[in-house]
Amino acid sequence: MARRRPRTASLAGCALWLGLALPVFAAAQTPFHERQRVLEAEARERAGDLAGAQRILQEVLTARPADLSAILMLERVSRSAGDLESVLPWIERALAAAPEQAVLRQVHLRILGDLGRTREVGLAGAEWIRSAPRELSPYREFALALARIGARDSALAILERGRRAAGGPPALAAELADLHAVQGRWALAAGEWMRVARQGPAFKALLIEKLRLHASTAAPGIRLLVDSLWRPGAPPELGALAAVAATYAGDEMRARQIAAEVLALVDSRARRELAESLAQAAREAGRPGLASWSYEQLLDAVPAAEWVPLALPIAQFHLSRGDTVAATAVLQRTVDRAPPGSPTHRSASALLLEVRAARGEGAEARALLEEYARRHPKDASLPRLAAVVAAAHLRAGDRRGAEKILERFLSAEPSDAKALGLLAAVRGRIALYEGKWDEARDALRLAASALTGVTRTEAIELVSLLEACTPNECRALAAALRAIEAGEVAEGAARVLVLPKEESGARPGLLLWAARHAQAARLPLAAPLLEAALRDHPQAAEAPAALLGLAEMAAAEPGGMARAQAMLERLILEYPGSALVPLARRRLEELRTRVPSS
Q1: Cα–Cα distance, 532 to 209 (Å, whole number)
Q2: What percent of the chain has pLDDT over 70?
Q3: What would you report as the CA-atom Rg of the chain, rounded to the nearest whole angstrom?
Q4: Chain centroid to CA 334
């Protein structure tokens, strides 16, 4: 005799089918003329004519009271119009025509709840249960409507009643867990989540979604669930859920420990599934370290044929969190494994080249560029890659090496704007180092117009300085920039600090520029640079920024709070027209309300 499927599973499947099939079902039940009218109403809605859309939908419902497409659209349009109450007569007519339609009853309860009609919610829910006492949907939707209006105890009672009448212990477990979690009943919530987990793989996604939604508020309950899921002798599939649950509970160490134990017990397919689930949960929970570890397990779990397409997104994840070491390792393995000449090999090679160049590995980047050019001599990205490698050589102080790269790998000017901007930035720096101030300014101006983000900001800053610099200041800027890019920030900043104030063209801006580099390198020289800008050039446009920078530095020092506040007050009073005044006011208020540390 065939085993009877549990009612909960079949009803869940029906609910899922209904949600997916509803638009198609509704369209199939609507004659052509009414379908056209509904489409016309949708067009009116998109155009902002909500009243016109409502009128058309009401005409459709006059002819066909239970038209689901028209009812659902009327609810949406009326919500947008702030006229939800007007839908009630139409939904009541629809229910009179088709009382068996669960979707109509669901919409009715939702509208009554949103309108705050507590008594009518109770009547409508009770009527639905009377009409279908052995189905789960009436209990579930009635309870959700009650919970939305704050009647959580009543909602709990309805769910328990539904469990007894229609499904047995596993039924409505997810909904009961939600209510218990909202009310802080962690042990009960964990027990219900455990019931969801035991219903099999089909319910795994449901449980994970519930845990994700409750992660910020229900960590105690989720930890109890982890205890229940992963016990001695528990099957590995429950251990996999426990690792994901521990991640959402914020217990990264336990998640990794459980995952490691499960990974040692299962086959490659299950290892991949767990690693992917854990990585996704870790990213959603803001645990990048755990996500990185999970990706390592994923790459170890899959064969070479599956490894390659997974690697690039993982490398990009490592780069997004600044882990160039991990990214380089993944990209190098991808280049080694992917078929030469394939799209993946090409993309991984280009990205690896850029990462090595950014890390200052100029020789390695150049070798990769030569190999890339040999394999893909007509590739459109070659000019951009050449500019990236040339910039790496410039940062290392090898100006001639940068020039040679451009000479060798650029047969024509690129058409791509980003590549053109990167090349202009490199050429501008080369011209600056060679003392060709006008040529440097023009190239950097082109770079600023073509680039975005930090590189654009740097180009704009250099253009502004060059436009104001005296020849002596231009030479100091070139020497300082060369030193800073070579990692000798103190030496570069010192070259700016010793500039004579009497020969000032861009000295205030140069001092501010050097101070920012010194601050980024955590050098004490930042304060003297800012003080010089403020002391020697009190009327310059850079003076308020220097004062704000000094105030922030003082606020970070022990006992410097009062000094920081005095500087901010000075900025507000002495430079009332500065764009930094609103920021100074906000910072001053923050410092005044900050509780002193003991």
Answers
A1: 57
A2: 94
A3: 33
A4: 26
